[in-house]
Design a protein that fits this description.
Layout (H helix, E strand, L loop, with lengths): L7 E2 L6 E2 L51 E5 L5 E6 L3 E5 L11 E5 L5 E9 L12 E10 L10 E12 L3 E10 L6 E2 L2 E2 L10 E5 L3 E2 L12 E3 L2 H10 L1 H11 L2 E2 L2
Antiparallel strand pairs: 1-2, 3-4, 4-16, 5-6, 6-7, 7-13, 8-9, 8-11, 9-10, 10-15, 12-14
Amino acid sequence: MSLLGAALLLAGCSGPQAGSGPGWTAQPDASGTTGSGAATATPGASGSASASSSATPSEPQGAATASSWKTFSDPAKTVSFDLPQDWIAQSVAPEEGVLPGGLKIEVKKPDGTYVAALRTGLPPSSGACPDNARHPYTVISSVPFDLAVQGGEGTIPPRMVYRVIQGYRYFGSYGITNLVGGSDGQACELRNVVRGPAGKGDYSFGDVVSLKAFAPDEKVAPAMPFDTLAQAAQYVNDSSDFANVQRMLMSLKVKN
């Protein structure tokens, strides 16, 4: 079967979806909802919170996750998440502009390779997006998971996503979000951000906070460049690194 078989839609993120389910399949929560994928829909459908998918269970496929895991928690016990036993989570100084008490926790492999960062206390961002700055994007993977978030206009139930935006190449990024993506399958940027409670700030857990179509002279990493959408889908379906990242990001717990 082709990795880019039927066009699928991420409910609420307003982008066409490609590829099959992730290698690691999330377990059902108490309500019986599983994190195995997204619902079939027509490309370009409007994204809204009411258009949530009714995901169905699927057998684990593709790459396996690490065999041994541990749990990281900050000293104040405000955030926690699981990560492979040999990965390293370290608190670092947050960027300027975060709210008081904001955290930045970087996750790296034993060799120092950057994997992701958890940021809390982020100020809200809603920059303008002119039509001439919009780029097509595709949702390669979308998995709903349980996380306490702030709802409201422009939000969806939280999901762990892998999305690709098209520029001079295809640029991919993983992260968590409860924000609606761009309309009609196009966006200026795709934000790996979850809206937090009033006064607490937003939070982000992923490789980058915001994914855009990079210019040829701009640094792409830690986002990933691809020549085709099929390459991006293959990474999601076959990479043990992605399977580990997906499990880690979906284990996040935030004490509000």
